[in-house]
Amino acid sequence: MNTPDPDQPSFPRAAQTSVRDARLRRNLTHATHTIRAKRAAAVAELPDWRRLRAAGAAIKDRTLRHLDHYLEELEASVTAAGGQVHWAVDAAEANRIVTRLVRETGEREVVKVKSMATQEIGLNAALERAGIHAYETDLAELIVQLGDDLPSHLLVPAIHRDRSQIRDIFRAHMGEWGRPAPEGLSDDPAELAEAARLHLREKFLRAKVGISGANFMVAETGTLVVVESEGNGRMCLTLPETLISVVGIEKTVPSWRDLEVFLQLLPRSSTAERMNPYTSTWTGTTGDDGPRAFHLVLLDNGRTDTLADRVGRQALRCIRCSACLNVCPVYERAGGHAYGSAYPGPIGAILTPQTRGTDSALDASLPYASTLCGACYEVCPVAIDIPDVLVHLRERVAEGGEFTRAGQRVRVRPARGHAAERAALRAAGWVLDRPYAVRAGQRLAARVRAVRPRRLPGPGAAWTDSRELPELPPESFRDWWRRTRGAEPAGDGGERPGDGGRGGAG
């Protein structure tokens, strides 16, 4: 199981630091608003987008229900095509497998395609500890690596950097990793791209081992698919003699016909393009073209445990498009680093606590890193109801209980600081379960409405720091109905203590 950095603060504490960075907020606002507007225009071109979205969700749900079958089919297909399949239960095992495979080649350098799975398991650090240097070849990932930084976005890892910062990073650090930046490098995008191209070309031509993830795996043929915009991925996938792909088990799709749906959904939702500039597919090895050896590392790392949760499992539909990040008001202000995970934004707030657990202060805080505005659900191309899962996980954090993790039942204590919340929810449950108590409370509130406080006391003060308490009406709906209609609203049982009824709140 991948574990959070013990020094990583909870989301609210980390966000307090990032929201004070005016440059960061300016960069994030400009980038997310630009991508958001382009995506909306690209999606609007398709009159059947909602049906396409529903089809994507249905395919994912069907695959997840029968994932054991499709994974066995995938393994058989990859093996028949000349590849080797390795199963990794957690991040540590995946890192051991990849490290062993690289060592067996005798190489000490690898080139990498942008991969969320390898970020998730901390592969670069694991390889470095084994004396193996991993070179990122995606432009944004290269910026992050040269700057000794961490990705802050699923699609654009260096979204928090502007052009002048990238120029300074190239000038200062590119020479430490290979070919230095050209003299007099400016912050012109064309010059920055050319500097990266020259720096990376020598690595592509020298590398004997490539490491990738995959956007999709087609079970019926054992084909892996990578979509990208720069062409660096295709260089990594075709030039090295050995290719190692680390892929989450949920990336499986049954057939090429299913893949067709996602190749329409993903480009428009991520880069606002009708199709990706580069869509690379490979099936095992051919002996004449491309790598001579292909290894597929199938990564669980908490996914099976997530699959067991009927509410939370929909997070495994995610195709990593990042549309939810680009519309999230919390992400726009806090940035990706505050989430303390390879998966920032709304999807990270539901995926990370399920795969890592909620034992740490950071992971227990992630389900609260949202306003529950629902914008993420509206743009999700596979209809993940992120707000619903967030509320579900908040309940888990507040109540604690037993959950499955890595095949074992573990006891999670209720999170500290939630005692008042739990007491309030229990009190609300007691009142809402008794209509006579609800009516009494409504009438009392109507009589004292003139002395309504502006701020809540105690723990509620933080809530009213940025919100106003709603105005109280002079009478409840039930009283208004009785006064104007002369009868109780339909469905009101009028229960009293001892009646044994459990009617609605009215």
What's the helix and strand layout?
Blueprint: H1 11-18, H2 22-44, H3 49-65, H4 67-80, E1 84-88, H5 91-105, E2 109-112, H6 116-121, H7 123-129, E3 133-136, H8 139-146, H9 163-177, H10 189-206, E4 209-212, E5 216-218, E6 223-228, H11 232-238, E7 242-248, E8 252-253, H12 256-270, E9 278-283, E10 293-299, H13 303-307, H14 323-327, H15 329-334, H16 345-356, H17 361-365, H18 375-379, H19 386-399, E11 401-405, E12 408-412, H20 419-432, H21 435-447, H22 461-464, H23 477-485
Parallel strand pairs: 1-10, 2-3, 2-4, 4-7, 5-8, 7-10
Antiparallel strand pairs: 5-6, 6-9, 11-12
Helix pairs in contact: 3-12, 9-10, 16-19
Count of individual helical segments = 23
Strand order of the largest sheet: 1-10-7-4-2-3
Work out the strand percent.
5-15%
Largest sheet: 6 strands, parallel
Q: How much helical structure, as a percent, in the residues?
A: 40-55%
What are the low-pLDDT stretches, counting only 5+ consecutive residues below 50? 494-506
Can you walk through the features of this model?
The protein has 506 residues and is α/β, with parallel strands linked by helices. Helix content is 48%, strand content 11%. It has helices at residues 11-18, 22-44, 49-65, 67-80, 91-105, 116-121, 123-129, 139-146, 163-177, 189-206, 232-238, 256-270, 303-307, 323-327, 329-334, 345-356, 361-365, 375-379, 386-399, 419-432, 435-447, 461-464, 477-485; strands at 84-88, 109-112, 133-136, 209-212, 216-218, 223-228, 242-248, 252-253, 278-283, 293-299, 401-405, 408-412. Strands 1-10-7-4-2-3 form a six-stranded parallel beta sheet, with helices on both faces. A four-stranded mixed beta sheet has the order 8-5-6-9. β11 and β12 (408-412) form a beta hairpin. α9 (163-177) runs parallel beside α10.
